[in-house]
Amino acid sequence: MLIVLLGPPGAGKGTYAKKLEEALGIPHISTGDLLRLEVASKTELGKKIEKTLTNGELVSDEIMADYIEKILKENPNGVILDGYPRNMKQAKKLDELSLKLKINLDYVINCDIDDEVIIERLKNRVVCPTCGRVYNLISSPPKRDKVCDNDGTPLVHREDDNEDVVRHRLEIYRKNYSEILNYYRNRPGFLTVNTDGEIDAVFKSILERINWSGTSQEEK
Ligand code: AMP
């Protein structure tokens, strides 16, 4: 099973991917989290891409193609992908790999939300550098001041979540995604969810539109 979550940075892809991971028992893979880990661990790849991440630019499609192939091979039962694909080249690569590795792309969940809501959200977003859990200091704060509920790690504000970089990331997103959305729009597992709402209610609506036998209600 393969599920792709599409949507601008800050749309809640990570939040719903984590919830889907718990519900479906298949791993949530955030390419952004993995790439940040490469940078933090100072791997060869991490050194190569550090500047790209800080500036909010996209890592090259060639690097990403190898990276995503490795991820899919390591997870033969499928994954919930958050952050890939980000342009048409990547979308086509994913189709090619899904055929080659016989992992069916079941659902494409398009998380839809206004840019201004995102900018406000990302200003208040903090993440746990250990487990990746995401918090919003206003709408979903941690129980104790700025430390992770799961593991007590101090929460951090991502370097690329400052307003200028966020606006740049949104620009990149809008430029590439209309084409991707059109590419997926008519497939049976495509659905659009408005993610500007209370988390449990939004998640319930995602579950209602997906059924476990492998068919989804088409976009309403
Ligand atoms: P995210 O956490 O998804 O916002 O990703 C953070 C950063 O990681 C992006 O701004 C890109 O620099 C890089 N990145 C993540 N996924 C991809 C991808 N599929 N293609 C290219 N760059 C990516």
Task: List strands and helices in order, with pairings.
Elements: E1 2-6, H1 13-24, E2 28-30, H2 31-40, H3 44-54, H4 61-74, E3 79-82, H5 88-100, E4 105-112, H6 115-123, E5 125-127, E6 134-136, H7 163-184, E7 190-194, H8 199-209
Parallel strand pairs: 1-3, 1-4, 2-3, 4-7
Antiparallel strand pairs: 5-6
The chain binds adenosine monophosphate.
Detailed description of the structure:
- The chain has 220 residues and is α/β, with parallel strands linked by helices.
- The protein has a domain at 2-114 and 176-212: Rossmann fold, CATH 3.40.50.300.
- 46% of the residues lie in helices and 14% in strands.
- The protein has helices spanning 13-24, 31-40, 44-54, 61-74, 88-100, 115-123, 163-184, 199-209; strands spanning 2-6, 28-30, 79-82, 105-112, 125-127, 134-136, 190-194.
- The chain has a 5-stranded parallel sheet.
- Strand 5 and strand 6 form a beta hairpin.
- The longest helix is centred in the C-terminal third of the chain and has 22 residues, at 163-184.
- It starts with a strand and ends in an 11-residue tail after the last helix.
- Bound molecules: adenosine monophosphate.
- Adenosine monophosphate is lined by residues 9, 31-32, 35, 52-53, 56-59, 64, 83-84, 86, 90, 160, 169.
